[in-house]
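Continuing the series of single-chain predictions for the mutant panel. This is the parent chain; the variants come on the following pages.
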Amino acid sequence: MAYVLNEIVDVVKNGNDIDSTCEVVSKEISDKRLTFLQFVESMEDILTSTDKDIRLNGVKAFVAVLKKLPLDFFMPEELDYINQFLCERFIDHHSFVPIVLTGIEYTIQMKNITKQMIVRYFNTIMPHFHCQSQLQNDRYTFYCILQYIFLNRLDDLRFMGPDFLYCVISSMDGERDPNNLILLFRILPQFLSNFPLGHLAEETFDVIACYFPIDFYETEESKITRDELATNLSRCLTCVEEFADFCIPLALQKLEASLKVAKLDSLYLLKLCCENFDPVKIKNNIEEIWRILKMIIMTDSEDSANEVREAAIGVLTALLYSLTIIKGENEQEQLSNFLDIILKSSNRFLLDTQATLFIPSIKLLCSVGKTSNYACLKIANKVYLILLDKSDVSRTEIIRIIEAMGLITNMCIQMSTDLSSIPGLETRWEEICCYFLLYAQNELPEIKISALRALKISTKILTNSQRQNYYYILIQLIKSDTTDSIRKETLSCFKEVAKYFKEEVNKEIIQFNSNILNQSNDIILKSKWLNALCCLGNEEYFFTLISDSLSSNLSEKQAEIELTLKCLRDLVKNVENINLLHHFALNGGLLNFILTTWINGIKSCADFKIFRNEIILEDVSFVVNSIVKAINNSEQLRILNQFSEYFSDIMSTKINFKTLSDIEQGIHSYMVILLESILNSLNTNIKLNNVILLIENCIELSTYSNNSICSLSASRLTATLINKYIDGDENDFLIDKLKLNLENNLNLSNLYINNVIIQISWITKSLSLKGHKKMLQWIDWSLNLLADPLYGKIMTQCFKMLTQTDDRYLNKECFCSVKLLYRQRIFCYVIEPLISKYNTSPELIKENYLISILYQMDGNTYVTLSPYFSKILPLLLQLLSPEQVYVLQSLQTFRNLLESKTPVLEDYLQSFVPKLLNLSQSSKYMNIRIVALQCLYNCCDYSLIKLLPLKRQVISELTKCLDDKKRLVRKEVVRTKSRWLSIDVVNDDD
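Parent structure:
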């Protein structure tokens, strides 16, 4: 103990390594081998020294030890001593303030600190602390102290009244640091809403309001955003009722600003005013608020951009809610008068359907109508009657009228307003949906689409006779040859009507046309109906019908099977209701049917055009994999147990492919595709028997199968099994054994080399994803194989696979192990060997390393690339030539780097800009010319001083590109040239 105390005294006197020594002292105190009092007594000479610096070191040690002790360590009498000591040191010397603040921040959180101690702290701080003269970190510490007080001990300081409030607002007055401001803006509402403001309300508001609107420009290093600051500031300004008289005029004043961001901030603030302040306060400013909102919403100017207009409509909606609160539903005078003003302002646009603001006005009125039932009825009456009475209108007007009526109908449905209850529509309300039905049969696609959208909205309110007409229209549209847009809207309507009228849809549409689904020889027509039926996959009522229809069409001819699988593939890929996939997986369901059918077809060597068709097998594999991935563990286990026996030749018996007959080789090759579709997305909680044997058999099949899709499937399955199931030191021998076998296979006939290389690539990726300790050994092997003239070119695909992600294989959704930042780790390991080999290898194999470098760069950010960029850049520059084979890939890499504003490229602008200009003119490929121009466009993000020397040359060369024979290239030229022309008139941040 004495040794520790002597050491701390020596360390503090010297001022070196205080923190680590204090940590030892704190542990001694925590373990009761030393008391805090003994520690303080040992520091007496230091804490009372006449040398300010030594005293400061003593305080640092005192606080350092304090911070390492638990919050419940001290009794109240001990804390009282600490409290007095820190207060005395606070006024000792200004250099003591930062460390004492740290001590205060920690001690106020202690369990046994009393109200008197907290009051003593602030009685010391208030007269002696000028916050804005401190450093940023120290101001932040003080704000953290306030945060704790606001949240936990505010009642202790309430009696201090205006003095404490003044301390708070004066401490933040003039604060400019965004990190400090965001903290203040987050904690002030809690404080202000729970502390009396009294005569300081206006001064408090002014201190906060000086930041409105937020003037803050984000950088890449910013930890906070401008929107965060703006949102939290607005909440501060509207958190207490006393601010209403100051806040509403402020918001209205700033709305006159020309900057879009200032308008948006002001509108958001005004919306909060309507939501948070007494409605009477809002009522007093209603005329001025509407005057400004009308200017934004009802004028077609640059200031009334869609975003600003939407924000203004949001304010208007909040304002109307506020008015509803004032009068309630039974007394509508104030609300009615204001609605009359809005309708009068909108009237000229409602009468002119060709006006630019016709639809925006309708959307405005819909937002207004959703604030109360009274507003909804009043607006619906006005708009419906104007629109229904229009005649002799043009095609464009019809489209706009239909859209407008659809929006108003949607408003009424959302407000649960019966159309027959709308004044003036008691006898005409059915005309609205009849209008939609009439134009849904129009020959013009634009009108038809608009009417179908309106019908979808109106589905719930169609009468029985209207629905019968609607069903007829849908049947005709499903059967007919239409555009993709019309078909999309038709199926959307079909889904919507099936949601509300399931039995009618089943009877009137599906069963009525069941002969097409079951008996028609018209493949195209059958495809249309199957697609329509599949779009009902979110309704459980139709699950069995969908499953049965798909099953029956999977037993027909090849053409029917192909179209059915295509529908099924789209269905499982975009399914909205995951329960449909569970239905497919039921025992005896669609999944069972598909697997049984194809297993029997492959094993019986049935129709090769169906059961060994690569396109069909790919679709079958996709469907099975998607269903297995979506179901739970118990369902997966049931399916595995149910079908394991069919795959026993692969899963339980050692395969020697060369000794198999041709028939057996074919069966094994195609069965492994189905096996992969089951095992690929199997949860790792489900254990497999004979995994090592299965892996060895898959490698045997992947190596010797003559069918590329079978070989690829077996290779992927090998990689998946290794990733999921091969762990622990005891399985290292297997990885080594596989490597040895594959090395031997490389020496076999050239027929198998491609298969072996693909298998090596998949295993390498599998090991790399999970961070297996053998992964570097396989990566090294892959690097060495690049040097082989025979198969080095094929081996480059391994380095492509290592950077690419696949949404179907070896990912977390398939329950594979994927380590964070695995791509970056691989890149850092392989990039230097690749560059070194590229620089020293003969021309024959040089290209292999170059391709691998490009693949490795793809998908990695500049942060990863930067340490090696000086070595990579010369290679990229070398590739920026029209005669280079990999120029497009190099250009795309350049574009990605330029888009991310890679700093180091700025110093090489003069090297690559001429090359980009040359490519934009000389390349015979349109894609290369476009990407080169995009690179030149992104060059303008760099500093003006670097760009100006190049400007004349770039503009001159780009002018020549304006005659390019391809329109897309010319479009890119104009965009790029315009940006280069404007670089010297834009303010340069640098």
